[in-house]
Design a protein that fits this description.
The protein has 231 residues and is an alpha/beta fold. The chain is built from 6 helices and 7 strands. Helix 1 runs antiparallel to helix 2 and helix 2 runs antiparallel to helix 3.
């Protein structure tokens, strides 16, 4: 079934039906990975690994894949799991987060440090095996810097209890927002991790479950690093 899904993906690719091809590639590779897990014969395992590697190379080699998600104003159902989970494969062990506004807990309508914490919780839950998270952000201003550092250090200590190292760096010139995984996927969100609206109250629906939290309008663009050109 996995091989048939990949063959269908190639046919769709040739027909320039790229988004449908992407879905079939993903489905076929996932099916083959399931077979690989269930196989005990080492010869068959090597065969399946080789075929999966070939399919993944085909899937990623031509640079035609760019997925865009448009999140409408007040839309719900766009928690971090919904946006990121399909790219967090089991081989993901390292994550880079670049966002200039991971700072005060309360900054206008933003809960930015809590958002970053929620993102880290998603990584810890898996199915990926993240060991390192790299955060590049900017310093908060004035008295907020102390609160920012205290919160980030607490997140760092908590992650260490799960075998995850958080490396924190600061830049005064950072503007772009992007998240990268070491399996090659790169996600750019117009508002970074801060695309959720402020909850109505601490005991309102959507406060804990981000899938139920209304969103600000934004765009999510997904690329693979083999698809991007270095300037």
């Amino acid at each position: 079934a996995g091989a048939e899904a990949v063959k269908r993906a190639v046919q769709l690719d040739v027909a320039s039906r790229f988004q449908e091809s992407l879905v079939c590639y993903q489905e076929g590779i996932d099916l083959l990975l399931q077979v690989l897990k269930a196989t005990t014969d080492e010869v068959k395992k090597r065969h399946y690994r080789q075929k999966i590697s070939e399919y993944i190379f085909t899937f990623l080699s031509d640079g035609k894949y760019h997925k865009q998600i448009r999140i409408e104003e007040n839309a719900t159902g766009f928690g971090y799991e919904k946006v990121f989970r399909e790219y967090l494969t089991e081989i993901v062990s390292e994550v880079w987060v670049e966002d200039p506004y991971i700072r005060q807990v309360h900054q206008a309508s933003r809960y930015l440090l809590y958002n970053f914490l929620r993102f880290c919780e998603m990584l810890v839950k898996g199915p990926c095996k993240v060991k390192k998270i790299h955060l590049l952000t900017s310093y908060d201003q004035g008295s907020g810097r102390s609160q920012q550092m205290t919160a980030l250090e607490e997140i760092k200590r908590s992650l260490s209890n799960y075998g995850v190292t958080l490396n924190i760096d600061f830049s005064s010139s950072i503007h772009d927002r992007e998240i990268r995984f070491n399996n090659g996927w790169m996600i750019k969100i117009g508002r970074g991790l801060d695309y959720f609206k402020k909850p109505q109250g601490h005991f309102s629906i959507g406060y804990c479950d981000f899938d139920l939290r209304p969103c600000h309008e934004t765009t999510v663009d997904v690329f693979h690093t083999k698809h991007t050109k270095k300037m």
